[in-house]
Description:
This protein is α+β, with helices and mostly antiparallel strands. The chain has 25 helices and 22 strands. Helix 19 (470-487) runs parallel beside helix 21 (540-554).
Amino acid sequence: MKKSNRLIHETSPYLLQHAHHPVAWYPWGEEALAKAKAEDKPILLSIGYATCHWCHVMAHETFEEEAIAAIMNKHFVCIKVDREERPDVDQLYMEAIQAMGLAGGWPLNVFLMPDQQPFYGGTYFPPMGWKKMIEAIGKAFQKHNVRLKESATQFTKVLRESATQKHGLETASPTSTIKAVEQQFDKLYERLDHEKGGMAGAPKFPMPSIGVFLLHYYHYAQDKRALAQLNLTLEKMAYGGIYDQLGGGFARYATDDAWRVPHFEKMLYDNGQLLSLYAEAYLITQKELYKHVVYETIAFIEREMMDATGGGYSALDADSEGTEGKFYVWTKKEIENSLGEDAPLLMRYFNVIEQGNWENGTNILYRSHGNDALASHSKRSREATKIQRIQQRLLEERAKRVRPSIDDKILTSWNGIMLKGLVDAYHVFGEERFLALALKNIRFIKENLIAGDSLWHSYKNGQRKIMGYLEDYAWVIQALIAFYQTTFEASWLSTANALVQYTMDNFYDQEESLFYFIDKNAAPLIARKKEIFDNVIPSSNSVMAHNLFSLGLLLDNTQYSSVAKKMLGKMVKLVNTTPQHLAHWASLYTLQLKPMAIIAIVGPQYKAWGREIRQHYYPGKVLVGAAKESGLPWLAEKEATDGETTIYVCYNKTCQLPVHSVAAALEQLELIQRH
Length: 675
């Protein structure tokens, strides 16, 4: 009978992958931490995630080996952490590795003193190198304990520096100027790839927050370079191998600089954000390609990343049958056997060649730039229709293969991202099934992840666990604000407001005007950190700043608006210096160039007119609506004149003359734009 360790009781798929190792793994928690102190043993902390290729490799090569496990068990208390389940632990010790002058990545292996202070670490180690290192560290802990303690104390001191100390944050005016925004764009533009899109070089990650900043900047500055760069990136990604040309959805990143060779894992957070970005870009460009991507990606999410009750799974693995990408790639012969006489057309379209364009004679399907046949929904050519039919046949053939494993834990933050993407897609395209999916997901969040005025972080098999992090609150609040502006059901806005109040009470640092990542009521770590830099996922602080601006307007809440301005003021000098790492902050700064508009719609057609207004790109607006006067501040004392649907366009605490058509309201918005 297979032996198991303490991970057998966990729900994380990543932890369960290690539950039968000979290593005596513990999950992060009081039992393991108390054991380290009681036995005066160092902690070996190993962090990864279920779809991490090199995590699988090290587990198989090293952690499954009895001899190596015996050394680990002798010298250390061994703790295994799923970085997605415990982002607080991951962020803290990733920063520790960087403070040691080492490169970070996953698997992340960090050695801690019994009191959790770090003294050494690294990422992937081959078996013999790992064996020698853990033996040496085990001996060093016995013979040179004082020196290790001194090192650990110094690294911990770095970890405990405030954001203000570490990054030189200064309180400044959040008032935006076009000159400052132009400088932010110019600094960012220097670092972009003007031939292949995205950031210069390889690997290439989708960076949705940079795309949103380019959209906002183009809207306000009308700088054609911004729109051209955005289109270049979105088109190259959609044509590339990073996009699943058969089934829709994006892989986590491309290993090359042309978006053609993906690292095949698919993450919920990428696809949720890219739904929003492609949908918003469609509003400005009307490119059918973008619409095609949104529709296919939603079909992929519904088919492969949602459970029956509406929760969104975390990720799909890159590997199947032990080989990266095997589920997705094709030999020429496989396509010929599957499609017969239709094979040549599809092979030409997706660049399939005899010798293969990837490894071992296999082909990654990608399209040539400028080939828009599959994106043509309105005026389909005969060839485009035929290709779509053939594409569907090959997708059905692929479904017979051994599928990549799925990380089926449901994370609150990433579900908030997905929900926002579905809502944004509905706003743009008016597709009722998008709204139905969003409603299914928001009900799942409400029933399983919201507890009173607080959130849980993770859910699986009926179990919800781990107190919510700032990222959970930030993304769910943002999605609720968007969902309210879709349905105009005030209960969603009330829920968003209650969650904001909770974050203000339990995460906000008055002194630094920023939010901590972990709840003050959570079990403490050796340092309480703040997440401020925007990466593939925007920072939880920048998302909260956006939320406070929006909710401050919607609820006419001056406290929220004031906190948002303080947050932006704290960050603005850093944004001006390194906008590529703070693009979501830069977007918020850009929004302040013009007055934010509040559009209040009252009357029988309030939902239909709200939907129509949302289909016009104007990032600096929020909507409220009701059939008749309601308790919301911007709807109080407003009525449908003579029973006719009436729109009030307001900014700077003042409303324009009421109008009775969407066209008239949009004209007033244009006047605000020129203000």
